[in-house]
Amino acid sequence: MEVNLGIANVIGLVLIVGGAIAMVYLGKRRQHR
Amino acid sequence: MGLDQIESIVRSLGLGTMNAIGVVVFVIATIVFVLELAGFRLHFSRPFLKRHTTEWNAMALMKVAIVAALFGGGLAIFAGVVFVPGIAYLRPAQAFTTVFGILFGLPGALGSALGNFIGDIFAGTLTLGSVAGFIGNFMSAYVPYRIVYAARHADLSSPGDWVRYVWAVVAGAFVIAFYIPWWLAALNIIPGEVAWTAVFGNIWLNGLVTPWILGGLLLKMLYPYVKRWNMYWADSEQADPELRRDDLTVTRPTAQEA
């Protein structure tokens, strides 16, 4: 299957950064409760 | 030890031996996977089968999503470094499976399975082999989780904890390295020769090197935060207090007790 690696890399970065932000946000919220 | 050495070991063992080990690993791991999703856990001592404490509540599902995003994203970034076209590529993100298996438990393992699926989509490696990739990556998080298990080991506060972590990575890599090639060879997705001489070594090294180095550092760094945020698996699942106690946190009364 032909894939566009440039797009895959960008999506990969977005997922990593998004995942990290989500984890920290959730964690902080749970800590303060 | 590089790929060439692994290949020569595989050749001296013979493809028959590899297939024999592969089928045993495949059957046991698949049974464990199905049982875990059905809510049951196998143990080495009596009673051999017990219900586990994981509930698929909102928190668990968020953990699944977070791990799937981190792992899938991490895989996609390095998807360009291909070893076996359509099958194997450089996967430093494999460190996430070990770390989040140990930190999040079962939701972390399911997140790894989904993350691999996402990675396969972006790397262009989504084949029938991805079925084994799903369960194989579940196991590569699940095995370290079962071996490290307690918070006092997950905190990596002593040399003994590090030894246990290194062993957990070896065991996890062993399972995934036999699981996926066996499936690829059995279904003739790629020739058995290639599955055992090329793919096996790639998965084995991907499952060892970065989980040892990057994974160890990541676990050491993330554990105190995850524990403080009440996201450590034993805390989320209100497991046995013995499993939740670590060597870093000084015991202090909780808000309710104070």
Task: Explain the overall architecture.
The complex is a heterodimer of chains A (33) and B (258). Chain A is mainly α and 33 residues long. Helices cover 85% and strands 0% of the residues of chain A. Chain A is built from one helix and no strands. The longest helix of chain A is centred in the middle third of the chain and has 28 residues, at 5-32. Chain B has a single domain (3-19, 54-238), classed as Arp2/3 complex 21 kDa subunit ARPC3 (Orthogonal Bundle), CATH 1.10.1760.20. The mean pLDDT of chain B is 93. Chain A binds chain B through residues 1-3, 5, 8-9, 11-20, 22-23, 26-28, 30-31, and chain B through 62, 65-67, 69-70, 72-77, 79-80, 86, 118, 122-126, 225-226, 228-231.
Chart the SSEs and their pairings.
The complex is a heterodimer of chains A (33) and B (258).
Chain A: H1 5-32
Chain B: H1 3-13, H2 15-37, E1 40-42, E2 49-51, H3 58-77, E3 82-84, E4 88-89, H4 94-104, H5 106-123, H6 129-148, H7 151-154, H8 159-186, H9 192-228, H10 233-236, H11 241-244
Antiparallel strand pairs in B: 1-2, 3-4
Order of helices and strands of chain B: HHEEHEEHHHHHHHH
Radius of gyration of chain A: 15 Å
Biggest sheet layout of chain A: none
Report the largest inter-chain contact: A-B, 23 and 27 residues
Helix content of chain B: 55-70%
Low-pLDDT regions of chain B: none
Provide key terms for this protein:
heterodimer; A: 33 residues; mainly alpha; 0% strand; B: 258 residues; Arp2/3 complex 21 kDa subunit ARPC3; two-stranded antiparallel sheet; 11 helices
Care to give the gist of this entry?
The complex is a heterodimer of chains A (33) and B (258). Chain A has 33 residues and is mostly helical. Chain A has one helix and no strands.
